[in-house]
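User: Reviewer 2 asked us to show a designed sequence for the structure in our supplementary figure. I'm pasting the structure tokens here. Could you produce the per-position amino acids so we can include them in the response letter?
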């Protein structure tokens, strides 16, 4: 008895050989379509610390909190801390875009309509240098919001909020896309665990509250997308 498949009567077609499929399986076609992909380790973060050095400490007596660094020198200023943050922030994220949902019941069904937009907190991971520069800057920032000793602090949010930026970089160093976080302030500086058994270097995370963010197309040759504001 002859094989009906060989005779072609009920021959099943191989899905992988259907029209157009062979082309999509080509690795070269894949390469030509994508050209290149963004890398998660090519980024830069810049933190605009508020101008709190030498300003109102938040105490009722208006005391100053400039402090001095090692060898009696004046403490670091906000520009130094901002510049250093571009190197010591080792991990961050491009923000999520979230819109809430309002559910309206109707005769056994639920109609879903768009609710309010929400903005999640933003967390960065920082390498701790021996000068404790960035950790000290965050601790000082939080201390102006609420002092550790007497529960007082700045009352005007504009005095303790600042902007932060994260840049997605291309392999040539140009900017593909940037995000600006408006009026952020820290609510947690995570602990640094110590142990005789530990090796490596110290790092810590900081959680920052965000009012809103805006996105901008980069200036690099491969930059795409649109400005979101």
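Assistant: Here is a per-position design you can include in the supplement:
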């Amino acid at each position: 008895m002859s094989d009906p498949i060989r005779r072609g009567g009920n021959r099943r077609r191989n899905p992988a050989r259907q029209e157009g499929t062979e082309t999509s399986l080509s690795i070269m076609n894949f390469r030509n379509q994508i050209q290149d992909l963004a890398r998660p380790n090519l980024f830069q973060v810049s933190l605009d610390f508020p101008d709190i050095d030498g300003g109102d400490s938040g105490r009722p007596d208006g005391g100053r909190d400039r402090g001095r660094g090692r060898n009696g020198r004046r403490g670091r200023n906000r520009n130094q801390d901002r510049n250093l943050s571009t190197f010591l922030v080792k991990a961050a994220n491009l923000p999520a875009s979230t819109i809430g949902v309002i559910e309206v019941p109707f005769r056994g069904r639920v109609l879903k309509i768009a609710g309010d937009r929400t903005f999640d907190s933003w967390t960065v991971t920082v390498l701790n240098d021996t000068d404790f520069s960035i950790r000290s800057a965050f601790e000082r920032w939080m201390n102006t919001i609420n002092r550790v000793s007497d529960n007082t602090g700045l009352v005007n949010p504009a005095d303790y909020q600042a902007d932060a930026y994260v840049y997605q970089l291309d392999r040539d160093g140009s900017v593909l896309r940037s995000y600006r976080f408006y009026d952020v302030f820290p609510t947690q500086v995570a602990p640094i665990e110590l142990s005789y058994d530990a090796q490596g270097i110290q790092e810590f995370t900081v959680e920052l509250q965000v009012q809103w963010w805006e996105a901008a197309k980069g200036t690099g040759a491969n930059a795409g997308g649109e400005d979101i504001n």
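For the response letter, you might also mention the following. The CA atoms of residues 82 and 223 lie 25 Å apart. Residues 133-145 form the longest helix (13 residues).
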